[in-house]
Amino acid sequence: MIFKSHFISMIVFSGIISTMIAFIRHDEKDKIKKTGIKLFLYMAGGVIAASWIMNFI
Amino acid sequence: MKPYFIFFLSWLFPGAGHFIQRKYTKAVVFFSGVVLLILLGLIMEGRFFQAYTETTNNFGIMQKQYHPLLILGFLGDLGTGIFYFIVKFLGFAKGNIEAVTFHYGTTYLVSAGLINYLVALNAFDIARGKKK
Questions:
Q1: What does the pLDDT look like over B4-27, one tens digit per residue?
Q2: Fewer CB atoms inside 10 A, N or C side of chain A?
Q3: What predicted TM-score, i.e. pTM, was given to this entire model?
Q4: Which among B27, B24, B11, B23 is positioned nearest to B112, based on CA atoms?
Q5: Model confidence over B52-63: pLDDT tens digits?
Q6: Residue of A23, A33, A39 best to disrupt the B interface, most CBs of B under 10 A
Q7: B84 CB contacts (<8 Å, ≥6 apart)?
Q8: B101 contacts in A (CB within 8 Å)?
Q9: Which residue does chain A place closest to B124, by CA atoms?
Q10: pLDDT-wise least confident of A6-15, A19-28, B27-36, B56-65
Q11: Angle CA B85–A22–B131, to nearest 5
């Protein structure tokens, strides 16, 4: 079975979804790259931040 | 070509709406993205949502109980277009609740459908001339 690590599952999921949304939103290569990286960082960063906060609950 | 036909085509075959409109790079990205999400979801032993649960009533008769959240999940899965029917026909995506990756797999599958709706809407907008 692959992806037993939830972290890797989340990273792969964020990567695919952010790439696709970036391609949906923009046509120019630069904008696609920028939006893709930004979305990926928002998703992955958001999950890491939420996990860190949950550590205190 | 009519925008509604493009929307339908794009829903049925992910990326086809863009391919027809000569957006080849986008078509390849969308097709491979949706297929990758479905494959990973299946490998992770996720399942497609059923719109109902089967329960037994006081008289011992089985009956279907529809639930709004299950219906939404089912509609999300249906977004994968032809792959939904292929996977159902082949008997996959039944899910294994004991697998540690079950919930992630189910999320991958429903996300494939939801993102394909966005792809189809994007193809629809391009056909209408609202987007490049």
A1: 999 999 999 999 999 999 999 999
A2: C
A3: 0.91
A4: B11
A5: 888 888 888 888
A6: A23
A7: B48, B77, B78, B113
A8: 1-4, 9
A9: A24
A10: B56-65
A11: 85
